[in-house]
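Continuing the batch. This is chain 6 of the set; chains 1 through 5 are on the previous pages. Same settings as before, nothing changed between runs. Recording input and output for traceability.
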Amino acid sequence: MAIQDIYPTALRLLGRPVLVVGGGPVAARRTKGLLDAGARVTVVAPLACPALAELATAGLLNWEPRPYLPSDVDGVWFVQTATGDAAVDAQVSADAEAQRIWCVNASDHEASAAWTPAVAVVDDVKIAVNAGGDPRRAMALRDAVATALDTGDLPLRRHRVSGTGATAGSVALVGGGPGDTGLITVRGRRLLGQADVVVADRLGPRELLAELAPDVRVIEVGKTPGQHPVPQAEINQILVDEALQGQRVVRLKGGDPYVLGRGGEEAEFCRQHGVEVEVVPGVTSAISVPAAAGIPVTHRGLAKGFSVVTGHEELSEVPARADHTVILLMGVGQLRDSAASLARAGLPLGTPVGIVENGYLPNQRVTIGTLGTIADQSEAVGVANPAVIVIGDVVRVSPFAPSHFKTADYSTTTPNAPRITKTRVLTP
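Output for chain 6:
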C-alpha cells in the first residue's frame, strides 16, 4: 500500500461499538486509545494481559474470554485485530471487509484496510502521523511536532472560534526572563504563540515579537526609570478590556511577573473583573543577570543571604555586611547616594561591587569596583539601565573580577585605596 493511497481522516467513535480481537500488549494499547475516544469496546481473546484485564475489571470494556467468531463483527463500527496470529488476524480482516467495516490488521499493515497513526495531543490539537508503515519513524515525527508545538516553534494559535463559551478571553502574565530568547520558559513561549494580543514591556525577550503572526496586535507599555508613558492603572484596564472582547492576551514582562514586576496587581485586577488569568514564572533578572557575570548571590563562606532592593530609601532596612549580598535593580541613577548610605550604615568602602548591564544580550558589559569607587567608575564609563548592581563579597567569585580581588582583604580598605577601574565587556 503506497502512502498516496491513504486518505487521512478522523473518526468520531463516541458511544459507538468497537471490536478488538486479541489480548496482548498491542491490543491493550489500541484499546486504551479507543476508550479515550469514547468508544464502547468489546475485547475478544481467550486470555488478556494485565492491562486489559484491569480495564475489564474496572468495567471500562466488555471482555469475551474465548476465540474469535465471525459474528463478532456484526453491528460494530470499527475493528482492531492484534492477536499475534497472522491467520486469525487475516480472517478478522476479511470478515470486516465483507461487511464494509474498517479494520486495522496489526499483523499485516500492507493488507490492512486502515492504519493507526502515531498520536499525540497538545492543548486541543491532536497530531496523527503515518510514515509508510514505519512506526518508529512515525513516532519520532510525532514527538518532534508535539515538541515544536509545546515550545511555541509551531503556531498553536486559534483562528476559528466555535462552541459554547469559545469567545471567552483570558490573560497570561508571562515572565520572559532577562532578555535572551532562550531563557523564556516553554510554557511562556507556548502561550505567546497562541496570543491574539501581546502587551509588551520594554525589557524581556523582544526578539520573539518579530516571530508573531502579522495579525497579532502588540501593545507597547514599556517603562523606564521615571518615565511611565502608560500608567499601571491603564495597563490593568487594557488587559481586562482585551480579554473581555474574547482575546487571548499575553502580558510579556522581563524577568518574573511576581518579582518587582507588579504582576500581583495585574492578576488581582483581572480576577476582580471576571477575567481568567494565568501566571507563568520567569527567570528573574535579580538572580540571573549576576549569574551571567559569574556572580552567585549566595556562596559558601562569602554570603548566606541576599536582599533585592529597588529604591534608595529601602537600603536602611538591609544588613550592612559584606557577607550579605545586596542587589540593586533600577539603581544606576541613585548609585552614588546608595553607596554612601551603605557606607554610613557600616559597610566597608572596600566591599566589592559589580554592575552588569544588558545581561545575557550581545552588548552585555560588566564593571567591577568597590563601594568607595563604583560611583565614579560608573559615571566614567557611562553605565546605563538596564543594569543590575551587586554589592558584597560574592563579587570576588566573578571571573571578570581583578585577580587581587580574590586574594586581598578589603574589609579594612580606606577611602584612599586605589580604584579598580577595569571595565569588562562580554562579546557575543
